[in-house]
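agent> Task received from the user: take the single chain below, predict its 3D structure, and emit structure tokens. No templates, no multimer pairing.
agent> Plan: (1) validate residues, (2) run structure prediction, (3) serialize to tokens, (4) report one or two observations.
agent> Step 1 OK, no nonstandard residues flagged.
tool_call: predict_structure(input=
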Amino acid sequence: MKISPPIRIKHTYTQTLAGPPEAVFPLLCPVREVEWVNGWDPRLVISESGVAELDCIFVMPDQPHDAVWVVMQWEPHAHHIEFVKVMPEVAVGRIEIRLWPGEANQTLAGISYAYTALSEAGERLVRHFTQEHYTAFMQEWEAELNHFLLTGQKRPGGSHH
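)
tool_result: status=success, residues=161
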């Protein structure tokens, strides 16, 4: 057995979104994200309800292997969802999203991503997951979601998370 200290990074960002939490929360779903996230196309979604739920599992194409996501917390009334993202032989991610009402019918979304390396490839992922990279990623996600909330359409361009 090998026991080693984690090589881990965590970043948090707060988005301001153009709609109330009740409108935003259902969109934080592997199926509904297809409507607003450019490049988001899960290969498989395992769900009794057909959308996000506790223990929902979905598989996203990734390198070098597909990433497996599991919904670990799902609290729609509290507007809270948490995922574990397993990238085999690379890293394990933990993604937590909490929504709360902002001003003027807006939502504030606290989004945390943490990655723990499982290998040298995972260590590279952790090193490249800088605050600057994360902030740019969060701003792109915020722009895509706001565009959808305001227009009902997917924003041209962008990339998936």
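agent> Step 4: summary for the user.
Strands lie at 8-17, 44-46, 57-60, 67-75, 80-87, 91-101, 107-117.
agent> Done.
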